[in-house]
């Protein structure tokens, strides 16, 4: 990848996409706030995901479940007990790190996701791996570090009042499987999707918004009859690919990786990850997992409720199997912004930063620009008109060249310039962000013109 993380982050901060969380107090480690432009991009992305996976899908429906859930949910799902990272400390400099990351950073071709503490310890000893911070070889034993955030519900702060912030949105879907199926009289196959915050007390958060402790997920749990012929896993891999094409992610920058059996999460039978080539290394972007009947089975056992599905044609009761495509909103935004960021030479002596965002995602689709102060009023009227139909901004400060550059830098696909001739011929200049080509379009046809372009 051509551009460094720092370069892109600086640009995004300067342009109002992302700010450091609690910045005026020195920040809070690895917390980020989306600024006015970031939040528009985020909302566009979530709305596209919702349309693609929920409203325009003939199978799926949506849900918005609570973040705090009964602790038995986490016992059943295996998160209490299983959802932990192998942690070790350097005795010399006190740096805390993940044992599996220490190995993978030294041996990038290895994936030790499923290794036991014993295997990790032996490998570190055999290869004499040292602390990345101080170079010492003096580690504590490896212990499991619980990743779920704890808090207390109610006035008492005792063991009984402990509740957890959800580490994935998926469990809210599983515990509502029967509610959704019954109330909507859904027949298999069908999916339930939701977008919402998840929390993980990650040991090594970082790389900007790639790994944070508070993040948002877009998850779909697709329930089907395992006796069915259709390869639903393949179907959802294709749907994820279609979505990546829809948002214009460059296929050269991502790949599909099959997880080996020893790298699977405790609930998964088969997983394919979409991995993106970030500048700090290739990393998971979107996980597509075959969860089998793990979750419904576990919740049936723990809740003692019958979560099976009655096939009315065969009169047979089955426990549906699940395919889960799951992606982090912030992580996908990072990939999108990387993909879109270009520094382009313009002529011999000039350059421009341009975010080549899909018009479906860009914070603004159009910018209305009056060529001169004397045209501010008429141009502003045009802006107000276009605002009814498009995500639109208005820019009247600085020379025209600077204003074009400003819109390029935030990814606005089209600038609409109102000049003196516009008063005569009732046409405006429409400038294309990527090609910089300009054309005259009749004001009366503008809405139709952009509707066709932005479809
Ligand atoms: N329900 C399955 C599940 O949560 P996961 O692989 O742990 O699986 C799914 O997470 C996706 O959520 C990841 O592919 C990633 O995009 C996003 N994600 C996970 N942990 C994250 C974190 N700490 N910060 C940002 N995004 C995260």
Automatic annotation (TrEMBL):
<dbReference type="InterPro" id="IPR033731">
    <property type="entry name" value="GlyRS-like_core"/>
</dbReference>
<feature type="binding site">
    <location>
        <position position="98"/>
    </location>
    <ligand>
        <name>substrate</name>
    </ligand>
</feature>
<dbReference type="InterPro" id="IPR027031">
    <property type="entry name" value="Gly-tRNA_synthase/POLG2"/>
</dbReference>
<feature type="binding site">
    <location>
        <position position="168"/>
    </location>
    <ligand>
        <name>substrate</name>
    </ligand>
</feature>
<dbReference type="InterPro" id="IPR006195">
    <property type="entry name" value="aa-tRNA-synth_II"/>
</dbReference>
<keyword id="KW-0067">ATP-binding</keyword>
<dbReference type="GO" id="GO:0015966">
    <property type="term" value="P:diadenosine tetraphosphate biosynthetic process"/>
</dbReference>
<dbReference type="InterPro" id="IPR004154">
    <property type="entry name" value="Anticodon-bd"/>
</dbReference>
<dbReference type="GO" id="GO:0005524">
    <property type="term" value="F:ATP binding"/>
</dbReference>
<dbReference type="Pfam" id="PF00587">
    <property type="entry name" value="tRNA-synt_2b"/>
</dbReference>
<dbReference type="InterPro" id="IPR002314">
    <property type="entry name" value="aa-tRNA-synt_IIb"/>
</dbReference>
<comment type="subunit">
    <text>Homodimer.</text>
</comment>
<dbReference type="InterPro" id="IPR045864">
    <property type="entry name" value="aa-tRNA-synth_II/BPL/LPL"/>
</dbReference>
<dbReference type="InterPro" id="IPR002315">
    <property type="entry name" value="tRNA-synt_gly"/>
</dbReference>
<keyword id="KW-0030">Aminoacyl-tRNA synthetase</keyword>
<feature type="domain" description="Aminoacyl-transfer RNA synthetases class-II family profile">
    <location>
        <begin position="146"/>
        <end position="363"/>
    </location>
</feature>
<feature type="binding site">
    <location>
        <begin position="210"/>
        <end position="215"/>
    </location>
    <ligand>
        <name>ATP</name>
    </ligand>
</feature>
<keyword id="KW-0963">Cytoplasm</keyword>
<dbReference type="GO" id="GO:1990742">
    <property type="term" value="C:microvesicle"/>
</dbReference>
<dbReference type="GO" id="GO:0006426">
    <property type="term" value="P:glycyl-tRNA aminoacylation"/>
</dbReference>
<feature type="binding site">
    <location>
        <begin position="215"/>
        <end position="219"/>
    </location>
    <ligand>
        <name>substrate</name>
    </ligand>
</feature>
<dbReference type="InterPro" id="IPR036621">
    <property type="entry name" value="Anticodon-bd_dom_sf"/>
</dbReference>
<keyword id="KW-0648">Protein biosynthesis</keyword>
<dbReference type="GO" id="GO:0004820">
    <property type="term" value="F:glycine-tRNA ligase activity"/>
</dbReference>
<feature type="binding site">
    <location>
        <begin position="324"/>
        <end position="328"/>
    </location>
    <ligand>
        <name>substrate</name>
    </ligand>
</feature>
<feature type="binding site">
    <location>
        <begin position="328"/>
        <end position="331"/>
    </location>
    <ligand>
        <name>ATP</name>
    </ligand>
</feature>
<dbReference type="GO" id="GO:0004081">
    <property type="term" value="F:bis(5'-nucleosyl)-tetraphosphatase (asymmetrical) activity"/>
</dbReference>
<feature type="binding site">
    <location>
        <begin position="284"/>
        <end position="285"/>
    </location>
    <ligand>
        <name>ATP</name>
    </ligand>
</feature>
<comment type="function">
    <text>Catalyzes the attachment of glycine to tRNA(Gly).</text>
</comment>
<dbReference type="GO" id="GO:0070062">
    <property type="term" value="C:extracellular exosome"/>
</dbReference>
<keyword id="KW-0436">Ligase</keyword>
<keyword id="KW-0547">Nucleotide-binding</keyword>
<dbReference type="Pfam" id="PF03129">
    <property type="entry name" value="HGTP_anticodon"/>
</dbReference>
<comment type="similarity">
    <text>Belongs to the class-II aminoacyl-tRNA synthetase family.</text>
</comment>
<dbReference type="InterPro" id="IPR022961">
    <property type="entry name" value="Gly_tRNA_ligase_bac"/>
</dbReference>
<dbReference type="GO" id="GO:0005829">
    <property type="term" value="C:cytosol"/>
</dbReference>
<protein>
    <recommendedName>
        <fullName>Glycine--tRNA ligase</fullName>
        <ecNumber>6.1.1.14</ecNumber>
    </recommendedName>
</protein>
<feature type="binding site">
    <location>
        <begin position="200"/>
        <end position="202"/>
    </location>
    <ligand>
        <name>ATP</name>
    </ligand>
</feature>
């Amino acid at each position: 990848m051509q551009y460094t993380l720092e370069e892109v982050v600086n640009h995004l901060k300067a342009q109002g996409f992302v700010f450091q969380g609690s910045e005026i107090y020195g920040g809070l480690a690895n917390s980020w706030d989306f600024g006015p432009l970031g939040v528009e991009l985020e909302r566009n992305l979530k709305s596209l995901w919702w349309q693609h996976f929920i409203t325009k899908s003939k199978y799926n429906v949506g849900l918005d479940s609570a973040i705090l859930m009964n602790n038995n949910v986490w016992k059943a799902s295996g998160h209490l007990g299983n959802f932990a990272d192998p942690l070790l400390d350097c005795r010399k400099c006190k740096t805390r790190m993940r044992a599996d990351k220490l190995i993978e950073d030294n041996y990038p071709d290895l994936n030790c996701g499923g290794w036991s503490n014993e295997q990790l310890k032996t490998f570190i000893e055999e290869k004499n791996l040292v602390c990345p911070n101080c170079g010492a070889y003096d580690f504590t034993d490896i212990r499991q570090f619980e990743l779920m955030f704890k808090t207390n519900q109610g006035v008492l702060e005792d063991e009984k009042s402990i509740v957890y912030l959800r580490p994935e949105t998926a469990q809210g879907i599983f515990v509502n499987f029967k509610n959704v199926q019954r109330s909507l009289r859904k027949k298999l196959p069908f999916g339930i999707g939701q977008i919402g915050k998840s929390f993980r007390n990650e040991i090594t958060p970082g790389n900007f918004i790639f790994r944070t402790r508070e993040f948002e997920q877009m998850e779909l749990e697709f329930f089907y009859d395992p006796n069915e012929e259709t390869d639903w896993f393949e179907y959802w891999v294709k749907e994820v690919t279609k979505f990546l094409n829809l948002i214009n992610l460059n296929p050269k920058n991502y790949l599909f990786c099959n997880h080996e059996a020893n790298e699977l999460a405790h609930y998964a039978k088969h997983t394919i990850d979409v991995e993106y080539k970030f500048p700090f290394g290739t990393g998971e972007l979107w996980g597509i997992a075959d969860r089998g009947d793990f979750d419904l089975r576990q919740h049936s056992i723990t809740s003692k409720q019958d979560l099976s599905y009655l096939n009315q044609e065969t009169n047979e009761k089955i426990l549906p199997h699940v395919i889960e495509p799951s992606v982090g909103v912030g992580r996908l935004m990072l990939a999108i912004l990387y993909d879109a960021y270009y520094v382009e030479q313009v002529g011999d002596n000039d350059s421009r930063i341009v975010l080549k965002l899909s018009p479906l995602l860009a914070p603004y689709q159009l910018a209305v620009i009056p060529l001169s102060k004397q045209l501010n009023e008429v141009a502003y009227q045009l802006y107000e008109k276009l605002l009814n139909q498009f995500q639109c901004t208005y820019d009247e400060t600085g020379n025209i060249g600077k204003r074009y550059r400003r819109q390029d830098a935030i990814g606005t696909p089209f600038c609409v310039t109102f000049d003196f001739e516009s008063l005569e011929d009732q046409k405006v200049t429409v400038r294309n962000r990527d090609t910089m080509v300009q054309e005259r379009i009749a004001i009366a046809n503008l809405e139709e013109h952009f509707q066709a372009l932005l479809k």
